[in-house]
Amino acid sequence: MDDPGLVGMFGAALGLTPPWQVTSVVFDKEAGKLEIGLDFPRGSRFACPHEGCGESACPVHDTMEKRWRHLDFFEHQAFLAARVPRVNCAVHGVHLVSVPWARPGSGFTLLMEVAMLTFAKQMPIAPLAAMAREHDTRVWRVIEHHVNATRATLDFSGVTQVGMDETSARRGQDYVSIFMDLAGHRVMFATPGRDSNTVKAFAEDLATHGGAPKTQVEQVCCDMSPAFIKGIAEHLSEQPEEAVVDRETGGPETVELVHAAVPTQLRGNQSPVAVTDAPVKLHRPQVIFDRYHVVSKANEAVDQVRRAESKTRPELKRSRYVWLKNDSNLTAKQRERLTWLNRPSMRLQTTRAARWRDDFNGFYEQPTPDDAEAYLKRWCYGAKRSRLGPIKEFVAMVENHWDGIIAWQQSRLSNGLLEGTNSLVQAAKRRARGYRNKDKLITIIYLIAGKLPLPQIHTI
Predict the structure, then answer these.
(1) 3-state class (DSSP) for residue 459
(2) What was the pLDDT predicted at 33?
(3) N or C: which end of the chain has fewer CB within 10 A?
(4) Range 96-114 average pLDDT
């Protein structure tokens, strides 16, 4: 079909600019395919595709036939086909030009790729590939390209509040650690594992995106994982050997000192460097232990008491969630059972453990940090004498992580945003019935929670 009106309509719909133009429209009803032919007039010139080259009128050397999958035309597959010129630049030689409707090396138009990215946020890749009538490997390539290319342009130099947590990648002890900008509400980085090396990998990624891992992060919210705590101390904090002093002009010089009670030092023939007797102050981010994770440890202590006591008190069997749910979330039947179990005549150790747990929660309701610290000291003093082993172990855990728990009262930071992101990730994983590897899962995490500035176009 070479009707001028039809050709002009498709040219306008595609948003082509000179010298590109629609030259043919071929519809195969039996195959269910529409092919739109594109070309350029004889004698056209093109800009050199080499980045930074100012040559805007290079002659055509030869052409290559290429074809791209476009958005469907009604229920029919649509394709663009064109002779793509190779131009001869006086500076850079012969190169294939970039076309405005597709990225180099792709078999899809940009509009088709944007549609894939949009649908991929809401549905698994397998049904998306089936809907597009393409192999899922091709769809994955498009998504991974745009996610990786967009992430490479991000700037994390202004991030000062970081939340870190892990999410399950598959059944068993298989995890992906997620690092989030708590102020920007976006996932910054995700990596397999949940050991201290995940923090190291985050620090390296932060550096590649314009950040200064050792001095930039002011506050970190996490659970009480020893691996995360170790990683923060090693990779997001200044180390003693990284303390710096200045030369005459204030340039950085690395020296090994923590308490600089060192006399004037000489550096070869350079001027002496004056070192004071004052301790060198090293940067350390404030570690805040997330309220949800701390309270979950208190709930674990209550449940341990219940499980041990249920061996001799059968009325406690199948009552786990009666004790662990918030009062507002209890059903009428559960509330009735809890009232019955809390009767003084029952004399249950689990009741006492639950009261210590509820009293601990009062720490988070205190009006000021000073009041909260005083309250927690009194609570620990009493809970140590509760004669309940799991509660005493919880008290020891609180005292070992005292500064991070108290710090919550000063900042009120929490990983609620991360928990919500984990819910989105797990929902996506369930819809997809899992991903073939963790790299695919991480790509989806970036796509749905990274707030990536992905391509948004309406014409090619």
Answers:
(1) coil
(2) 94
(3) N
(4) 93
First-to-final CA distance of the chain: 22
Beta strands in 194-279 (DSSP E): 219-222, 244-246, 252-254
Using the structure block, give the residue that is written with the tokens 């209550």. 302
Range from 99-103, 243-247, 336-340 carrying the lowest mean pLDDT: 243-247
CATH of region 109-238+414-460: 3.30.420.10
Q: What is the DSSP letter of 329?
A: G
Task: Using alpha carbons, list the distances in angstroms from residue 358 to 195, 325, 341.
Answer: 32, 12, 16
3-state secondary structure of 146: helix
Q: Is residue 267 scored above 60 in pLDDT?
A: no
Q: What is the pTM of this model?
A: 0.84
Instruction: Kindly state the tokens that stand for 157.
Output: 């130099």
Domain boundaries, the chain: 4-101, 109-238+414-460, 245-282, 293-411
Buried b (16+ CB within 10 A) or exposed e, 20-48: bbbbebeeeeeeeebbbbbbbeeeeebeb
Alpha carbon 364 to chain centroid distance? 28
Q: What is the dihedral of CA 245, 250, 252, 258, to 10 degrees?
A: 10
Q: How many helices (H) and strands (E) does the chain have?
A: 15, 12
Cα–Cα distance, 363 to 377 (Å, whole number): 10
Could you tell me the CA-to-CA distances from 429 to 146, 174, 180, 415, 447 in Å, in that order? 20, 14, 19, 21, 13
